[in-house]
Write a structure and sequence with these properties.
The complex is a heterodimer.
Chain A: E1 9-13, E2 18-23, E3 31-38, E4 45-50, E5 55-56, E6 61-64, E7 70-75, E8 84-92, E9 109-114
Parallel strand pairs in A: 1-9
Antiparallel strand pairs in A: 2-7, 3-4, 3-8, 5-6, 6-7, 8-9
Chain B: E1 4-7, E2 10-13, E3 19-25, E4 31-38, E5 42-51, E6 54-57, E7 65-66, E8 76-78, E9 87-94, E10 104-105, E11 109-113
Parallel strand pairs in B: 2-11
Antiparallel strand pairs in B: 1-3, 3-8, 4-5, 4-9, 5-6, 7-8, 9-10, 9-11
Classes of the chains: A mainly beta, B mainly beta.
Chain lengths: 115, 114
C-alpha cells in the first residue's frame, strides 16, 4: 500500500468548510484512497473512498488530483462533532491474497472544530 | 439499527485469567476483523475472518485466538492474558465488496491486564 502524508493537526471554524489534505505521491494505478475518522477513542468511522474521480456522499466530498498524487477531504459545513482524527488510507483492491481488509491507520490529522 | 457491538466495554483483569471479548454484527456481513490500538502504534490487525469457519492471522496474532462459528459473531479469546495485551480493542465488519475496505467498527473494549 502506498505511503500517505497528512498534516498533524488543523483547525476549522464551525460552519466553515474543513479541507483536509493527503499526499500519496507513490500511489499506483489500482490503489484507492479511503478516508476514515476516529472521534476520541470511539471506533473508526468510514467516510468515503475514490479511485480517480471526485466523490461525494452525505458526509463529505473527496477531491483527487488528476495525477492522483494527492487528495483532499472536504467537510462542507464543519460542526463541533466533526472534531476527530482523520485518516487517509491508500489501499489496493486485489482479487486475491491474504491482506483483504487489513487497514493500516497512520497518525492521521487531528481536526479541531472551534465555535 | 445496523451496528457492531462489543462486550464488555471495559475490563480490568489479572495476568493469566482467561477472558473473551464478544463481537456481534447485525448487518449480515461476511468479513469481520479484530484490531488493537496502542498509543504511537496506530491500529494493528489481530485476526480476521472472511466467512464462517474461515479465519486468518493479522499482524499481531500472538496471544489471541478467535472463532467464527456463526456469521454474526466473532469472539476474541485471550487464553492467558499478559500486561502487554493492555490495549483498546476494536471489532469491525464489512459487507461483501471487492476489497472489504469499507468497514464498520464497534465502540471498542478497553482492556487492562494487571
Amino acid at each position: 500500500d502506498a505511503k500517505t502524508t497528512q498534516p498533524t493537526s488543523m483547525d476549522c471554524a464551525e460552519g466553515r468548510a474543513a479541507n483536509l489534505p493527503c499526499n500519496h505521491s507513490t500511489i499506483s494505478g489500482n490503489e484507492y484512497v479511503y478516508w476514515y475518522r476516529q472521534i476520541h477513542s470511539q471506533g473508526p468511522q468510514y467516510i468515503i473512498h475514490g479511485l480517480k474521480n471526485n466523490e461525494t456522499n452525505e458526509m463529505a466530498s473527496l477531491i483527487i488530483t488528476e495525477d492522483r498524487k494527492s487528495s483532499t477531504l472536504i467537510l462542507p459545513h464543519a460542526t463541533l462533532r466533526d472534531t476527530a482524527v482523520y485518516y487517509c488510507i491508500v489501499r489496493v483492491v486485489r482479487a486475491g491474497g491474504t491482506s483483504y481488509g487489513k487497514l493500516t491507520f497512520g497518525q492521521g490529522t487531528i481536526l479541531t472544530v472551534h465555535p | 439499527e445496523a451496528q457492531v457491538t462489543q462486550n464488555p466495554r471495559y475490563l480490568i483483569t489479572v495476568t493469566g485469567k482467561k477472558l473473551t471479548v464478544t463481537c456481534s454484527q447485525n448487518m449480515n456481513h461476511e468479513y469481520m476483523s479484530w484490531y488493537r490500538q496502542d498509543p504511537g502504534l496506530g491500529l494493528r490487525q489481530i485476526y480476521y475472518s472472511m466467512n464462517v469457519e474461515v479465519t486468518d492471522k493479522g499482524d499481531v496474532p500472538e496471544g489471541y485466538k478467535v472463532s467464527r462459528k456463526e456469521k454474526r459473531n466473532f469472539p476474541l479469546i485471550l487464553e492467558s492474558p499478559s500486561p502487554n495485551q493492555t490495549s483498546l480493542y476494536f471489532c469491525a465488519s464489512s459487507p461483501r465488496t471487492i476489497s472489504y475496505n469499507e468497514q464498520f467498527f464497534g465502540p471498542g473494549t478497553r482492556l487492562t491486564v494487571l
